[in-house]
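Deliverable D2.4 — example input (structure tokens):
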């Protein structure tokens, strides 16, 4: 995917560029090509980015370590602020207020759609990667936990049973 020169977006009809996505994204290992659409709209002092895309990735289950396929979908939008011209000559180290923490680009620079899409797909990856409910590595439920009690907890278990006999609720 080619970089987009930001000033050229203002020359496009409706000040927006539509990119049809049908290929690979470097750094993102997929089974199928990434397919979808990215719309970049110039809003004066910001870029409005909207993407709908999908692909299939191979993940490794956190429980059983088997590989499985997962459909990864991105349906997102984001505003990327364009830096004001007078801010370009400031020193690189400066104090920034918490409300000013946002991504910015130079209004005379380039937007990298492939890099942005890579970030969006990375954020869409599932935090817990589980192959399914019937995973062979799923923890077994124990019906008799008292029989498998760690000996280090024996004193606490006896205190708990004494409290039950006294009529107090230990939980």
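Example output (designed residues):
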């Amino acid at each position: 995917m080619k970089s987009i020169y930001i000033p050229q977006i203002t020359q496009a009809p409706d000040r927006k560029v539509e990119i049809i996505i049908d290929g690979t994204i470097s750094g993102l290992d997929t089974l199928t090509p990434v397919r979808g659409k990215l719309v970049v709209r110039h809003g004066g002092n910001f870029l409005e980015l909207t993407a709908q895309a999908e692909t299939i990735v191979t993940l490794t289950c956190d429980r059983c370590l088997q590989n499985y396929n997962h459909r990864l979908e991105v349906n997102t939008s984001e505003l990327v602020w364009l830096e004001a011209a007078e801010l370009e000559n400031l020193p690189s180290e400066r104090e920034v207020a918490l409300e000013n923490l946002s991504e910015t680009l130079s209004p005379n620079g380039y937007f990298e759609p492939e890099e942005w899409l890579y970030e969006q797909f990375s954020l869409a990856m599932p935090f817990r990667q589980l192959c399914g409910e019937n995973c062979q590595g799923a923890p077994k439920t124990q019906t008799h936990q008292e029989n498998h009690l760690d000996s280090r907890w024996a004193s606490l278990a006896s205190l708990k049973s004494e409290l039950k006999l006294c009529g107090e609720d230990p939980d």
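The CA atoms of residues 48 and 79 lie 5 Å apart.
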